[in-house]
Write a structure and sequence with these properties.
711 residues; alpha+beta; Wheat Germ Agglutinin (Isolectin 2), domain 1; SHC Adaptor Protein; Phosphatidylinositol 3-kinase, Chain A; five-stranded mixed β-sheet; four-stranded mixed β-sheet
């Protein structure tokens, strides 16, 4: 009695508590981040590429540099990518991705599948999409990801709660928690399950410890971690899954998972807490059995019940029904003999929708629906058509089927509001947080766990769906036959048939308009593509022409510069030649000076004799210097003998003379003319000019700044 009394008191506050704790069951923050991640955009290579690998498509740009790839990606925007051939190694490829205003380069490999790290992908686009999701989550929720495994209490996780409840029911051989001993003390868990604290878990102490057998798993549908309750992000190889019990988790969470694998519970097939799309694909049914059964039973005997969906049902009975549907949906019975309270059925439905990982009206559908409805309940044909299109395009098929069934059901409830006191506005206020879970940031959910306020725009959108459900959703044949069996009149049947025909015509017209719009859009896209191709060709042509003109201009400037430089060099050489010629003319004046010339001639003769050091030499001079040379030879021979101790016999060539225009000096021959030493003023001028020309150039023209070597 104490047990049932406590549960009765708790049931009055159950709605607010479960709304507050619903976010602790499945955490959708990472799912929202994945949906907001930028989508990949391929930068198509429009130029022909030689030897393109067969496993690459139009994203391969061949041998281009980093600067070129960065320019292409910057112009394409966030999420753009391309593949280029690496310059460092042959048959090596680099994947370039634009993210957060930067170009990131990764070495790309292929062994039948594309990969950068451990994950393998069938296409480069899939690899880029997965990478963009990971980088987006790392950027916005890195701290949250690092903390989510450490801050999780495994005993409060969905997987642990479900396994403990199943084990206790198995030990005590009961079909529901209502058979528990009255002496047990109860508390409410974060997932809305009654957890018995004082019952001794025999198998937990006697069962041998067994670790999970984890394997990398690619989840084809949205999946949440059974350890921390957070969404497992990514597209391929997102997490790990136990091959024996189906426990799925993040890689970090799998490291902290306790050794509690139960091989007899392979791939737990439950109804509550399972994504609608996953459930529909697994069980091959558009609407879950629990929704159909509850809706049929409520409409059969409870549409006129006052406070429908507002009054809370028995928590114990709801939990009992929940466990029955989780164990075997087909064996669950909702007849009056088993469930006499209609509010327990409405509570079971609300609990089912509240525990969905993805709300019945998904985040994307809610956003578009709020924008389309615009806070107004009036419904003209165009608005109804637009809302119907939004529901079809944004909601998954499983969500569409369940929403259609439940919205029509709520409309029938609102039609009897004069009996049950539940108008479409009241129903929307009660169910808006259940069907349209309010989203928030990771930090908001962590810091402020209080239940969110009723969102007014979502409230108006849900009220619009309930009010105009017959016009938005077609009535299935199953429901029509059931109502005929319940005794509908022929007029009601004809009315429903007319509604069905009108809806089909409306769908056909919308489909035709959609086909026309799509054809026009494809035509515009193709036209734009052709225009872009021609524009690209024209731009390439003009770019080539600009490069050619620029090259010609550079060549002309270089030629003009070289010509000017050559003219300057020629002028400098002419000036140096003039200086040397003037020097030669002044040498003639010296040789004509009778006072200065004899000592110079004597020194020239002595230097020539000392240079040869031969016993017999022949001198050749100008004809006008013959007398002077004859006079100077004895003294020159004596000085040469003193300097070298060699007695030299000198003769004068009286037949051959130096040119008359010569500046003076002598030429010395020996060994029959085989050896010749020029000791003239011109030869000395040439030697001096060769040695001093660089210094003369520096003195006259200045130092050349471009000259780096002086030797």
């Amino acid at each position: 009695l104490v047990f049932y009394a406590k549960c009765a008191v708790m049931s009055d506050h159950r709605e607010d508590e479960e709304s507050r704790l619903g976010s602790a069951y499945w955490k959708n923050q990472l799912l929202l981040l994945q949906e907001s991640a930028v989508k990949p955009t391929m930068v198509t290579c429009e130029k022909p590429v030689k030897e393109r690998p067969a496993f690459f498509g139009a994203e391969f740009h061949g041998l281009i540099g980093r600067d070129e790839s960065d320019r292409l990606l910057a112009s394409a925007g966030e999420g753009s990518y391309l593949v280029r051939q690496s310059r460092r190694a042959e048959y090596s490829y680099t994947l370039c991705i634009r993210f957060d205003g930067q170009t990131k380069n990764y070495k790309l490999f292929y062994d039948g599948q594309h990969f950068v790290g451990e994950k393998r992908f069938d296409s480069v686009e899939q690899l880029v999409a997965d990478g963009l999701i990971s980088m987006h989550i790392e950027k916005h929720a890195a701290d949250y990801v690092r903390r989510m495994a450490e801050q999780t209490i495994y005993e409060h996780s969905p997987y642990s709660q479900f396994q403990r409840m199943r084990q206790r029911l198995k030990e005590h051989h009961i079909s529901g928690v209502c058979a528990l001993s009255p002496s047990c003390r109860c508390r409410s868990s974060p997932v809305g399950v009654v957890v018995v604290e004082d019952v001794f878990d025999v198998e937990q102490h006697q069962r041998p410890v067994k670790s999970h057998t984890f394997k990398v798993q690619t989840f084809l549908t949205p999946h949440w971690c059974d350890y921390c309750g957070n969404y497992i992000w990514g597209l391929v190889g997102q997490g790990l899954k136990c091959e024996e019990c189906g426990f799925g988790a993040h890689r970090r969470c799998a490291e902290k998972a306790p050794q509690d694998c139960r091989p007899d519970l392979k791939y737990v097939k439950r109804t509550f807490g399972v994504d609608l799309t996953t459930f529909s694909m697994a069980h091959r049914m558009p609407v879950p059995h629990v929704v159909e059964c509850c809706v049929d039973e409520i409409e059969r005997r409870g549409l006129d019940t006052e406070g429908l969906y507002r009054v809370s049902g028995s928590h114990e009975q709801i939990e009992k029904l929940r466990l029955q549907f989780d164990a075997d949906p087909c064996s669950a019975r909702l007849c009056p003999a088993e469930v006499d309270d209609v509010h327990a059925l409405t509570g079971l439905l609300k609990l089912y929708f509240r525990l969905l990982p993805i709300p019945l009206v998904t985040y994307a559908a809610r956003r578009e629906l709020v924008r389309t409805v615009g806070g107004r309940l009036d419904a003209d044909p165009d608005k109804l058509k637009l809302v119907g299109r939004v529901l079809r395009e944004t909601l998954p098929a499983a969500h569409q089927a369940v929403l259609a069934l439940f919205a029509r059901h709520l409309h029938r409830v609102a039609e009897l509001s004069h009996k049950n006191r539940m108008t479409d506005d009241n129903l929307a206020r009660i169910l808006v947080l259940t069907l349209m879970t309010s989203s928030g940031t990771v930090e908001q959910q962590r810091i402020d766990p209080a239940p969110p306020l009723v969102p007014q725009f979502e409230l108006c959108a849900l009220q619009f769906l309930i009010k105009h459900a017959p016009k938005l959703f077609i009535e299935p044949t199953r429901t029509l036959l059931n109502k005929q069996e319940m005794g509908l009149s022929d007029d009601d049947v004809k009315k429903q048939l007319r509604q069905m025909i009108a809806f089909i015509e409306q769908e056909a017209n919308e489909k035709a308009e959609e086909i026309d719009a799509k054809a026009e859009e494809e035509f515009n896209i193709e036209k734009g593509r052709l225009v872009q191709q021609h524009r690209s060709k024209i731009m390439d042509y003009y770019e080539r022409k600009e490069k050619q003109v620029e090259l010609q201009r550079k060549i002309q400037n270089s030629a003009m510069f070289n010509q000017a430089r050559l003219r300057i060099l020629k002028a400098q050489e002419d000036h140096i030649s003039n200086v040397l010629n003037e020097t030669r003319s002044r040498l003639l004046q010296i040789s004509n000076d009778p006072t200065a010339y004899p000592p110079i001639l004597k020194n020239l003769i002595i230097q020539a004799l000392l240079q040869l050091l031969e016993p017999e030499v022949t001198l050749r001079c100008r004809q006008k210097d013959l007398a002077l040379l004859t006079q100077l030879i004895p003294s020159c021979v004596d000085e040469a003998r003193k300097a070298s101790s060699i007695d030299c016999r000198v003769s004068i060539d009286r037949e051959n003379f130096l040119a008359d225009d010569s500046a003076g000096g002598v030429e010395v021959y020996t060994l029959g003319g085989k050896i010749r030493v020029a000791s003239t003023l011109e030869s000395r001028l040439e030697i001096i000019s060769d040695q001093l020309i660089p210094d003369i150039r520096v003195t006259v023209f200045g130092r050349n700044p471009n000259r780096k070597f002086l030797d």
